[in-house]
Design goal:
The protein is an alpha/beta fold and about 240 residues long. Helices cover about 40% and strands about 20% of the residues. It has 9 helices and 7 strands; from the N terminus they run αααβαβαββαβαααββ. The longest helix has 14 residues. The protein is globular.
């Protein structure tokens, strides 16, 4: 999930019964990331059309579930799915559990994907804005390898992440457009603060992502979404 920022007014959502921390987090994400409001629905719809996860009662892993946006979308679109929600942050997991009504039928796990053990157990997986937070020092490969290992052969992963663009003379314009989008969305932080906010992220380019997912055991990434430098891919575990 994306980084948060300060200054969000969450009282309308709180009054509507939405967990204040979750609504504030998602509001800031929508201000920072173009297309964010559609990412959970898009991810679930794509996975629901996959060969394995389309089956009734399919087992689906939500890696880095954050405040629960993908879990809510899955509950609405595929209430038959058997969901496992992983996040290494106990506070994030607590927000998601509260938001989902502490659903007893969801397998809540405060752990990393790399800590999963046992035989492949999932028909599909979702990873939305998680890989970008991991440095490319072996951590990204370990994360992707653990995801591939958790999937049954033929299982698919929907991966959405901030990407580092290939070299282009137009990239400065794209970066200016992103800042303009954030300003128009109500972000009040200075340009310097936004740069610092992105300093903890580690985006990579498509060629590097392709090498990593192949090494992890996935097929080449198929592009499914792009809004400025946020891109989505569909990956399938190789047999």
């Amino acid at each position: 999930m994306p980084p948060s920022a300060s200054g969000s007014d969450v009282s309308p959502a709180a009054a509507a019964g939405v967990h204040p921390a979750a609504s504030g987090y998602d509001l800031v994400a929508q201000q920072l990331i173009p297309g964010y409001a559609s990412l959970a629905l898009l991810s679930v719809a794509l996975l629901a059309a996959s060969p394995l996860a389309s089956a009734q009662g399919a087992s689906v892993l939500v890696a880095g579930c954050g405040t629960g946006a993908e879990l809510l979308a899955a509950r609405a679109h595929r209430p038959d799915w058997r969901l496992a929600a992983l996040d290494p942050s106990a506070s994030m997991l607590a927000i998601a559990r509260s938001r989902l009504g502490d659903a007893a039928d969801i397998d809540w796990r405060c752990q990393t994907v790399e800590q999963l053990s046992g035989a492949p157990a999932f028909d599909g997986a979702l990873s939305v804005l998680v890989l970008q937070s991991l440095p490319d020092d072996g951590s990204k490969l370990a994360f992707l390898t653990a995801l591939a290992r958790s999937l049954r052969p033929g299982g698919q992963l929907v991966l959405i992440d901030l990407m580092k663009p290939e070299r282009s003379p137009l990239q400065a314009q794209v970066e200016a457009a992103w800042l303009g989008f954030q300003r128009a969305s109500g972000v009040r932080e200075s340009s310097e603060a936004l740069v610092q906010l992105a300093g903890g992220l580690h985006p990579i380019g498509l060629s590097r992502l392709t090498a990593l997912v192949n090494a992890a055991g996935f097929s080449d990434p198929a592009s499914i979404f792009q809004a400025l430098d946020v891109q989505g891919f569909l990956l399938q575990r190789r047999d």
